[in-house]
Amino acid sequence: MSASRHDRVSWLRQPGVLAALPAAIFLLLGFAGPLAMVFGYSFMPPKTFSLMQPPTVENYISVFTDSYYISFTWSVTLAAITVLLLFPICYPIAYGMAKLFGKWATLVTVLVAVPLLISENIRLFGWVLVLVKNGIADGSLQTLFGVSMSGLLYSVPAIVLGLVYVYLPFMLFPLVIGISMIPDTLKEAASDLGASRWQIFREIELPLAMPGILIGGILTFILALGSLAESKILGGQAIVMIADDIESSFTFAQNWPKGAVLSVLLIALSGIIVYALFRRIDLDQIIGRR
Fold this sequence. Notes:
This protein has one domain (63-286): MetI-like fold (Orthogonal Bundle). Helices cover 73% and strands 0% of the residues. It has helices at residues 3-12, 15-41, 58-65, 69-100, 104-113, 120-131, 136-145, 156-180, 184-192, 197-208, 210-225, 229-233, 242-250, 256-278, 283-286. It is globular and about 70 Å long. The model has no long low-confidence stretch (mean pLDDT 83).
């Protein structure tokens, strides 16, 4: 046996490699395999249910000719709005959990995390009861102030409300991690040198908390980008997001290649965004390697 071949065999027999092999096989079959099939279907002729047909780029062209770019635009816009709204909402809460609340931070964490144990659809239907005409919010306003807000349900603001409500924990907890990495001694030194509270926030807190901000923003944006329940339950037919088009293509329209190409483009868009932002994050610092 040659030395190079012996090295390869020895490497394969390493305990770590053997221990990771089942997980690697599972990911290959359960994650990479379906993605490869979706990518293959994206080049099949429309309404084809077999991978044995001659490949074509017709489905990619139809994304623009059939106005699917509108769904992509709505999805990206609402995902960005969700991130922009959640940051100012979550930052004060995260700051309190990391620096101020002390033993009460655990209680706040539990209160934020408990809704995650309940189905997202059930929670959103709860908001339907709040926003529907003559519902909790509308009925209360009519009784107290004679004002009606019956037009809020099945609208874009209702969808944004649902996205902010559902994805708040995914922005909040990374922010807590990022803010907890800020040394209090730096802020005290800056204050002793005459820096204002705004200068300390802008020059010290914000840059040092940026890894948590970026991770929270990425998680929130990607999850909101592929959201479906919020637009269907709270938005009705107000707008159509890209996840709705993908579901319709694979189910009602029975056009798997069209659903596959929309999925591929959504994955590609998400991957580009994640890659661009993760280049600015020092994961070794976050997990404590250095």
